[in-house]
Amino acid sequence: METLANLESFVRSAEALSFSAAARRLALTPAAVSRNVARLEANLGTRLFQRTTRKLTLTEDGERFLQAVGGGLESIQAAIVAMARTRSGQPTGTLKVSMAPGFGVDYVLPLLPAFVERYPALRTDWHLDNRKVDLVAEGFDAAIAGGFELAPGVVARELARVHIVVVASPAFLAGRKPAPDPRDLVDWPAVAMRSVQHGRLRNRMLRHRNGREVEVASEPRAVFDDPHAITQAALLGLGFALLAMPHALPHLQSGALQRVLPQWYWDDGPISLYFSSQRLLPRKTRVFVDYLVDEFKARGIAEQLKAG
Predict the structure, then answer these.
(1) In terms of domains, do 220 and 300 share one?
(2) For residue 273, is pLDDT > 80?
(3) In this structure, are 98 and 217 located in the same domain?
């Protein structure tokens, strides 16, 4: 495969019939241009120029080769310039992102109007799903999720921690004795979560602020495989529930739900933004990553989602 430097040195020298003039155009020395042309001639096995101390002329092979590659070189350079302008200017194309429905709608969607206004040439394609996606195989530019195993070539930027808390509606708590310890919940009806991956009930641990850990044991009154459904069931008073703070926070703020065992919670790991680790990350992905991380920090979302 011939190098672009050799081809460009030949074409510019042929246009000017001068190594010196080509060197000035290419910001090279005449000796460097001459070496590039000599390498090209050696690789092709033919002489492209007739050289004298005072004159440079094309051979017949040189004329034919110039006609063959001249237009192609201009196309290549135009493509390089266009790509450079794209990378240095406004990002374009389609940004494809996967995120969990509840977290995405409540915490990411409110940030999008300013993002799309800032980058009007960028089309966004959002996939709201609780499943874990394969970024590379499914063509996603980024994913926002918790408990995401890092595949080769994928990196993560943490957005917030997933704190699990015990909540219930005021109507459900009315007339019940306070529960100072998770073991006191054993006779309380619960709304439980079924694992999406293997279909079994998820056993939950809670940690006191002093570091003591206890498993929550109770008889579920209703079982769901969707966190939004569990939230609604708790709001309806079907039982107490262990909810991630992103789902519980709006209802705790409104008073529709109350914390049970406020000294206890469980850190279930991070909610992160996942994307390719390639060095030349597409500009559309880079601006989205930077924007989202900056907005979460500026708005203090991670602090709001802390249970402790």
Answers:
(1) no
(2) yes
(3) no
